Amino acid sequence: MSNKITEAHRHFMIYKPYGYLSQFINNGQKQNSKKLLGELFNFPVGIMAIGRLDEKSEGLLLLTTDGKTSNHICSGNIEKEYYVQVDGNITEDALTKLVNGVQIGFDGKKYLTNPCRAFKITKVPDFPERSKRIRDKRHGPTSWVSITLTEGKFRQVRKMTSAVGFPTLRLIRVRVGNIRLNKLQAGDVAELGKII
User: Fold this and answer.
1) In this predicted model, what pLDDT tens digit does every residue of 153-167 receive, in sequence order?
2) CB count, 10 Å around CB of 15?
3) 62: β partners
4) pLDDT in tens, 120-137
């Protein structure tokens, strides 16, 4: 019988702010001036982000010390929902294209996205101000869309909205599986009892 005591894994949710990388250490000289997640909270040793949000994206990011949990969420059919502010007043035709799948570039090749859920959000969501301002109304209208995916290619949502003629201005992940961003503010961290 082993005398080794195994510590329980720990899980967190964070509202990743705009301008932060989804990592804890710099991976090269170009990133020396970048903001990292470890600056927001004193996370336990061995913590990892489950998936990523790019530097310009915000919202729900799950963190864990358990590699199996991370792998399950990244490789499974777990839904991820995004609220996306796009340039222009998005049309029903563009939404239909998003729902059915659009062709985007990935790794130098063309990729057809899987069917997803997408609809226009009629009421502007109540999110905290972003640290870097988004252009104002003088530059034309914007609209908000909910997009729910089970896949996650590099910058997929941004590429999808661009492919249908409505480039992304602001992207916020609001849900992963049953876990929602709720009322967290940018930079807030909450510890979770479990993730799945």
Assistant:
1) 888 999 999 999 999
2) 23
3) 13, 50
4) 999 989 888 887 777 766
CB 63 within 8 A of CB 179: no
Cβ neighbourhood burial of 77 (10 Å; 0-12, 13-18, 19+): exposed
* Catalytic annotation, pick one of 54, 87, 126, 136: 54
Query: Given CA atoms 74, 77, 79, 84 in this order, what sign does their dihedral have?
Result: positive
Let me know if 54 is a catalytic residue: yes
pLDDT band at 58 (very low <50, low <70, confident <90, very high): very high
Distance of CA 121 to the CA centre of its chain: 18
pTM above 0.85, yes or no: yes
pLDDT score for 31: 56
